[in-house]
Amino acid sequence: MDSRHIEFDPIIGNEQALRKLVPGYPKIMDKRLQPELDRYCLELISLSRLAVIGFGDDSTSMQVVATQSIVVLNPTTLSLRVRIPPIAETGTIAASLYFLIPGVGHSLRVNGEIRTKSGSCTLTIRCAYLHCARAAARAGLWNDSGRLDTAPINVASAFIKACPYLLIKTVNKNYETELSPRGDYEGFVRNLGGGKLFIPERPGNKVAVSMRNIIANENIELLMLIPGSDAFMTVRGKAYLSANPELLSKCSVNGKRPKLGIVIEATQSLIRRSDTIHSETPWRKDKHIEADHVTRFPKALSVHMNGSGVLGKAAAPIIGAVVKNDMKNLY
């Protein structure tokens, strides 16, 4: 599809316009943002093999890192042995981590600030957030479908066409970073030509953090993954939200059309082979974590939001029913 054929592009330029398409969310959802790591966050970190890191400094691209390079010092501090932007010893830089657990759909997002001192690098946690499995389920991220071979994909258009899963880095008005996953059928990121990409927005939790960030700050970066490949692709550019009906109609699934999407005007793209993915081999079935070896997401989220007391136990079946309904209605 060529962007020259798009006759008009109704841009969603403020949160009021956004909320006409994505209704407001129950404020109890804000309890998912906790200021420190609980036991279920620690469990997910211990089971993960890879993490994606994004920085508030736009000069440094997102990276895939091994979780051996991330050490939990205490519930609010991580030690990092990763390549980071230059930081003065008296300063900090925003950063976000997204942990990937082979074979497991739900995951952990951590936002905070990085500081260096005397050669060491630490991330002070601002919030930790358990993320649901919808993006991974839509993408079939850990499915052993045999759809891909191990031949490298070195052309950006081919990589985009084969990609079913990515992480978006956005920055809010306070220059705090956020990483959020998107997953769908292969080629769900539509190449519009002229350096433009389009990502449809599927049903989510209605908090719409990434979309609100884009309204406040147009800078965006993607890190795209292809199951079976040890390469990843990063794309940087400027983004805006669009309700263009022509674009949205071409992204319908099961007769359901998304209400909006993200248009990215790419300024840079780069495909890199990842030594971390190559050595960790996360796509192999024998490296996947079995479902009964990890706490079920509804229980973990309930305790994460409400603590381990009576309220946490009472909320678990309610959250379980919501999660079950979400997973049955991915589109």
In short:
With 331 residues, the protein is an alpha+beta fold. 23% of the residues lie in helices and 32% in strands. It has one domain: Roll (Pnp Oxidase, Chain A), CATH 2.30.110.10.
Helix/sheet category: alpha+beta
Distance between the termini: 23 Å
Number of helices: 9
CATH classification, class level: Mainly Beta
- Classified in CATH, the superfamily is Electron Transport, Fmn-binding Protein, Chain A
Shape: globular
What's the order of the H and E elements?
Answer: EHHEEEEEEEHHEEEEHEEHEHHH
Runs with pLDDT <50, length 5+? 1-5
* CATH level 3 topology: Pnp Oxidase, Chain A
Q: From the coordinates shown, what is the CATH architecture?
A: Roll
The helix content is 10-25%
Q: Write down the Rg.
A: 19 Å
Content of β-strand: 25-35%
The count of strands amounts to 15
> How many domains, in number, for the residues?
1
Mean pLDDT: 93
Largest sheet, strands/sense/barrel: 8 strands, antiparallel
Question: What this model shows, in words?
Answer:
It is a single chain. Helices cover 23% and strands 32% of the residues. α8 packs across α9. The protein is globular, with a radius of gyration of 19 Å. The protein starts with 10 loop residues before the first strand and ends with a helix. The chain is built from 9 helices and 15 strands. It has one domain: Electron Transport, Fmn-binding Protein, Chain A (Pnp Oxidase, Chain A, Roll). The strands form 2 sheets. Strands 1, 9, 10, 11, 12, 13, 14 and 15 form an 8-stranded antiparallel sheet that branches. It has a 7-stranded antiparallel sheet with strand order 3-2-6-7-8-5-4. The chain is an alpha+beta fold and 331 residues long.
